[in-house]
Amino acid sequence: MAISVSPVNSNKVFALIESDSDQDKGGLFVSNNAGKTWSMVSGDNRLVQRAWYYIEVFTDPKDEDIVYVLSAPALRSEDGGKTWKRLTGTHGDFHDLWINPDNNKNMVIANDGGAELDEDNETKAIIITGNGEKAFVAGADISEFAHFDVSQGGELAAKGQELLFDFVENLSTPVIAAVNGFALGGGLELAMACHFRVAGVNAKMGLPETTLGLIPGYGSCHGNDTDRKHGDR
């Protein structure tokens, strides 16, 4: 289950539910009285194409009828969840979405390929930060690739550098890393890939993989021509 309360109208709550017992019972539900009663607004099976612990629902900060669902595809509704349009992107499996609370045309969406940013020409700067105070990015779970050989590890690092870190670094729009909490491993490298970094008093940065004999592999710690554009790191 995923839940989102509209910032515009706190009585309007959306709940995205997957049903194991009956697929037709799953979908998007809405309450217009702060959760006292609920009605199903959409049974579109695209909304629940992933396991319940992955699906996400987000409400627009300016319009209570605009809703986003992240599942295998990323979907947007402008009529309170009745109809849906797919957001195009380079990868499937979408995980997180940040919408600028002051300007809903600016957003960052994360998927299995990394982060994608809108191409609104009015965007003057992009801020990447963590959700909450615990972590900016806590880094990878090393157990997921501990069995990789040298070739597989090199391929993973090269692909990650190309899809996310080089992408962020080469954007023409200034990118600011607002570091809160832990920025470890790839999280620190992501901050280094940004053009500017601002750290909170609770920020904790490090490269714990070096204690295991692993070299930070995404390129952001090594330095390149971008250093001369944005200053030494």
UniProtKB/TrEMBL annotation:
Xref: Pfam families? ECH_1
Pathway(s) served: Lipid metabolism; fatty acid beta-oxidation
Cite the InterPro entries for this sequence. Answer: ClpP/crotonase-like_dom_sf, Enoyl-CoA_hyd/isom_CS, Enoyl-CoA_hydra/iso, Sialidase_sf, WD40/YVTN_repeat-like_dom_sf
What are the recorded Gene Ontology BP terms?
Answer: fatty acid beta-oxidation
UniProt cross-references to SUPFAM superfamilies, sorted A to Z? ClpP/crotonase, Sialidases
- Name-wise, this protein is Enoyl-CoA hydratase, mitochondrial
Taxonomic source organism: Hippocampus comes
**In which family does this protein belong, per the annotation?**
Belongs to the enoyl-CoA hydratase/isomerase family.
Q: Which GO terms label this protein's molecular function in UniProt?
A: enoyl-CoA hydratase activity
Q: Which reaction does it catalyse?
A: (3S)-3-hydroxybutanoyl-CoA = (2E)-butenoyl-CoA + H2O; 2-methylpropenoyl-CoA + H2O = (S)-3-hydroxyisobutanoyl-CoA; 3-hydroxypropanoyl-CoA = acryloyl-CoA + H2O; 3-hydroxyisovaleryl-CoA = 3-methylbut-2-enoyl-CoA + H2O
Assembly with partners or alone: Homohexamer; dimer of trimers.
Q: What is the lineage of its organism?
A: Eukaryota, Metazoa, Chordata, Craniata, Vertebrata
